[in-house]
Design a protein that fits this description.
110 residues
Length: 110
């Protein structure tokens, strides 16, 4: 009877340890994925900033910065975005596009 009880307790401990290991693995995977997403976004931002300052693009970008019509359109577009945790479908699609572009650029340059 005591042996059966000890086996039952050991099984519960093994199950608890296994469950904790699975949860820690899931958490580590989620953290790695978040860091990878941040890496792709940072790559995208760095490349965009670099290419904006390219002498072929700089003149046109400077012209856009003073173009009132473009600035109004850009303001309307930005109003559709949100940095809140609960993102709408537009935010989700834009975020996926940015991640894909960042990933593609990262792979191309790395």
């Amino acid at each position: 009877m005591l042996i059966v009880e000890l086996e039952r307790v050991c099984m519960k401990i093994k199950l608890s340890v296994l469950l904790m290991a699975m949860l820690l693995t899931f958490e580590a995977d989620a953290q790695y994925a978040a860091q990878e997403d941040a890496m792709y976004l940072a790559t995208l931002k760095a490349v965009v900033n670099y290419k904006i300052d390219d002498e072929e693009n700089l003149k046109n970008v400077e012209a856009l910065r003073t173009n009132q019509r473009f600035l109004q359109d850009l303001s309307k577009m930005m109003a559709k975005l949100s940095n809140r945790r609960t993102k709408n479908s537009v935010n989700s699609r834009v975020y996926k596009i940015l991640l894909k572009a960042g990933k593609d650029i990262y792979k191309e340059l790395n």
